[in-house]
Specification:
By secondary structure, the protein is α/β, with parallel strands linked by helices. The chain has helices spanning 28-39, 65-76, 97-106, 121-127, 144-158, 176-187, 218-222, 245-252, 256-259, 282-285, 292-310; strands at residues 54-59, 80-85, 111-116, 133-138, 165-169, 191-195, 212-215, 227-230, 267-269. The protein contains eleven helices and nine strands. The strands form two sheets. The protein has a five-stranded parallel beta sheet. A four-stranded parallel beta sheet has the order 2-1-3-4, sandwiched between helices. The protein binds N-carbamoyl-L-aspartate.
């Protein structure tokens, strides 16, 4: 089989440089340099740095924002993209993850972007390929490009990430967005408050990073925050658990009244997709403090920087 890499010293295959599998093991300086590169990305350059390269998008789970912005980012850098989804591909016929990624490498992939319902799937792919692998969300594990675009969005408003108070409200347990955000913001000394009912926020969540605070009341959690990140209830990951949505709405929905307890200039964030009337009201989703649309917009330059970094194309995408 082609494309298997082994490092020199052991039987554990090496991971291609430029891969982005998670935020947990990234240094703060590396994060900042990626965000600075994103700020310099120019989608209209005459000699695009990824011209002739092939970016394969392998999506085993539904996606709107992440998929379309990785595709637009890749094309903006001059790359050719191909999307493979689990429905309509040989995955439906029972092909394994590794056989699928070997196939995509064989058709000429230079970068693999993968979303998968199982934590660790991008790492497994990366260990068996000689090309960079980008994690576009793996199960309940990590969603590094989302955390980076959220940090980028906050930086555009707050100038620094250091020492901010970030509050995350909602289905934290099932959220890879929360996990990556916690890893990222804690590297910058943020005070992070997590808020949700026990089913969505077990006590042991506090051990995920230093300086985490748990709160069961949204009013306490939001008070004094610089940014309030709201998360969707991930019904597809509840695995038979019954939660009362009525009770959730009553206690945890982010309403205009609750948002007023945050700082005056607090940002209201959500990775999307939003469910109006459930985790937040329509009024909050569309309020002046909401940067939900901006987060989506910022996903393009941030993913351009991720893809350019994957192929070592300089800090400004050259
Ligand atoms: C999230 C995801 O897929 O993890 N969405 C996203 O990528 N922007 C969050 C979610 O599905 O609720």
């Amino acid at each position: 089989m082609i494309a298997i890499r082994k490092d020199q010293t052991s039987n554990i295959p090496a991971i291609a440089p430029g891969s982005l599998l998670g935020i947990e093991h990234m240094a703060a300086a590396e994060i900042m340099s990626l965000l600075k590169a994103a700020a310099r990305m120019n989608p209209r350059r005459s000699r695009p740095p990824l011209r002739g390269k092939r970016v394969l998008l392998l999506f085993y789970e539904p996606s709107t924002r992440t998929r379309s912005s990785f595709e637009i980012a890749a094309k903006s850098l001059g790359a050719i993209t191909t999307l493979v989804q689990s429905s309509g591909s040989s995955i439906e016929k029972g092909e394994s993850l590794l056989d699928t990624v070997y196939t995509l490498r064989a058709v000429g992939a230079d970068i693999l972007v993968i979303r998968h319902p199982n934590a660790g799937a991008p790492l497994l792919a990366a260990r068996h390929l000689d090309i960079p692998v980008i994690n576009a969300g793996d199960g309940m594990h990590e969603h590094p490009s989302q955390a980076l675009l959220d940090a980028y969005t906050i930086l555009r408003h707050k100038k620094t990430l250091n020492g901010l108070h970030i509050t995350i409200v909602g289905d934290i347990y099932h959220s890879r967005v929360a996990r990556s955000a916690i890893h990222l913001f804690s590297k910058f000394g943020a005070k992070i408050t997590l808020c949700g009912p026990a089913d969505f926020l077990p006590e042991l969540a506090a051990s995920l990073a230093p300086g985490l605070h748990l709160s069961r009341t949204v009013e306490d959690a939001v008070r004094g925050a610089d940014a309030v990140m709201v998360l969707r209830v991930q019904k597809e990951r509840l695995a038979g658990k019954k939660i009362s949505l009525q009770e959730y709405i009553l206690k945890y929905q982010v309403t205009a009244e609750r948002l007023k307890l945050a700082k005056k200039d607090a940002l209201l964030m959500h990775p999307g997709p939003i469910v109006r009337g459930l985790e937040l009201t329509s009024e909050v989703a569309d309020c002046a403090q909401s940067v939900i649309v901006e987060e989506v917009q910022n996903g393009v330059p941030v993913r351009m920087a991720i893809l350019a970094r994957a192929l070592g194309k300089g800090k400004d995408g050259r």
